Amino acid sequence: MAEDDVDEEDWFEQAVSEEPTEQDESAAESPTEQDDSVAETPTEQDESAAETPTEQDDSVAETPTEQDETALDEPAEQDDTAAEPESDWAEAMADLESEAGTPEPESESFETSGEEALDIDVEGGESFGFDVGEEETTEFEEGDYQTVTPRVTVGIEGLDEMIQEGVPERSLLSVIGGAGTGKTTFALQFLQEALASDGKGVFITLEESRDRIYKSAQQKGWDFEGAAAEGSLAVLDLDPVDMANSLTSIRSELPRLVENYGADRLVLDSVSLLEMMYDDQATRRTEIYDFARALKAGGVTTLVTSEAAENTPYASRFGIIEYLTDAVFVLQYVRPEDFQETRMAVEIQKIRDANHSRETKPYEITNEGISVYRDATIF
After folding, report:
1. pTM of model > 0.70
2. Would you give the DSSP letter of residue 1?
3. What is the pLDDT of residues 312-353, one digit of tens each?
4. What sign does the CA torsion over 206, 207, 209, 211 have?
5. Who contacts 274 (Cβ-Cβ below 8 Å, separation ≥6)?
């Protein structure tokens, strides 16, 4: 805003300096006309000389007043125009910054649990449409993939067992799925994992209101509203148009604010709405690429959700985000011909620097969140 003020002052000085110049030129021309009058009619010259200064004085007195009014009105309009696109984002960031205290030291990596997979009895498995005749498990041999990179769990039972040692900390994850496959539930459960370990999280929603997010979490038994009141969770509901218009500001401010807030995890739901704000594909790619880099620069484990493409469940709506993220989870519907009921299945498409199962496993959305049946297969 400081640069705007300087520009307005320069404009005002230029406007004021230009007007007297015109008056000086008028004053310079008047004596010439008066000299001609001296040669012709001295009497008219005296009258003209008496009248001319009066008109000039009136002009000088009136002109700056109009300029002052214009100078007072113009900058105000410019300020309102400049501030309008960033109003929602600035307000949201102000809330986040007010909650941010002294930056905390980096928390230790989440321990990867060795919890046993969810057991499904034969009768229950068959009734759900799973083939449990022969148990199939994803076993990782010791030394399959070892790294010193700190790891974190996603927080979804059955899915974490499909990832050896967990997801590398500070990774950028994406969840791709059609409507109703549980993308938002996946994101809420991902944040709940941090809150349950006394961590902190930030949830940016472009689809739902803050209250709706609180209610959705409450239905799963997660007290997000209480966590927000305690300062361990910040939920920012932004308009996608406002976010697109303020993306340059967001890219520069978000990493710093997230670090100051001390967040362990960040969620954006969903990136598809942000992508839709750009008509040009080249511009869309550039903006989303820069935004993904800003998310990684935040230094926290981040998850973004994305709508699936219309012609395939394995790609995002615009086919961009899966190439920019470190891990891709695909949620999809499975509609075999002999099933009377649609099933849902999850697949890990990729995780950089991690060994993981490439099997497609069924899952359910229950009152406690998403549960993946790791020992079952879809037939």
Report:
1. no
2. -
3. 999 999 999 999 999 999 999 998 777 678 899 999 999 999
4. negative
5. 206, 240, 243, 244, 247, 268, 288, 291
Tell me the per-residue pLDDT of 176-204, one tens digit each, with 9 for 90 and over. 999 999 999 999 999 999 999 999 999 99
Domain boundaries along the sequence of the chain = 2-85, 100-378
Structure tokens at 198: 């006394």
Q: Is the pLDDT of residue 81 over 50?
A: no
Q: Which residues pair with 169 in a beta bridge?
A: none
Distance CA 274, CA 31 (A): 66
Fold of 100-378: Rossmann fold (3.40.50)
Q: What is the structure's pLDDT at 139?
A: 58
DSSP string, 302-359: EEEEEEBPSS-TTSBSSS-HHHHSSEEEEEEEE--TT-SS-EEEEEEEEETT--B---
**Cis bond upstream, residue 107 (ω within 30):** no
Q: Report CA-CA distances (Å) from 88 to 145, 240, 254, 267.
A: 45, 10, 14, 18
CA–CA distance, 218 with 223 (Å, rounded to integer): 6
Tokens (6 digits) for 248: 């340059």
* Closest to 327 measured CA to CA, from 172, 190, 186, 189: 172
d(CA 375, CA 367) in angstroms, rounded, equals 21
Which residue in 189, 228, 209 sits closest to 367, CA to CA? 189
Q: What residues pair up with 152 in beta bridges, in sequence order?
A: 167
Residues in the chain: 379
Do 183 and 346 form a contact (C-beta atoms < 8 A)?
A: no
Reduced to 3 states (helix: H, G, I; strand: E, B; else coil), residue 300 is coil
* Residue 50, number of CB atoms within 10 A of its CB: 9
Residue entry with tokens 């993308």: 183
* Residue 179 CB contacts under 8 Å (≥ 6 apart), including other chains: 307
Structure tokens at 241: 């148009």
Enter the tokens of residue 371.
């549960």
